[in-house]
Amino acid sequence: REGTEVAQLYMQDVSASLVRPVKELKDYRRLRLGPGEAEEVRFTLPKKDMGFYDNEGKYRLEDGLFRLYVGGSSRSCLMQEIRIAF
After folding, report:
1. How far is CA 6 from the centre of its chain?
2. Positive or negative torsion for Cα 15, 56, 46, 33
3. Half-sphere exposure of 69 toward its Cβ, with a 13 Å CA cutoff?
4. pLDDT tens figures, 29-38
5. CB of 68 within 8 A of CB of 13?
6. Is the pLDDT of residue 1 over 90?
7. Residue 59 to residue 53: CA distance in whole angstroms
């Protein structure tokens, strides 16, 4: 039957110098799908959205291990680990 799904993208900065959220919502898409329909969803995560403010208020981008999660909720999602060098 027809319904709405929300595809969600979460990120975790595993190796940050400060403690970061386990799953930080970075983007989402609301989809209306009919019976038997499927739709491909693509997310873009800009470099500027992968940083954080340190204790002195300076915005930091740190190299390291990141986990990206995609799914219909924060509890039920696929995960991929990536290493990034800014």
Report:
1. 13
2. positive
3. 19
4. 999 999 999 9
5. no
6. no
7. 4
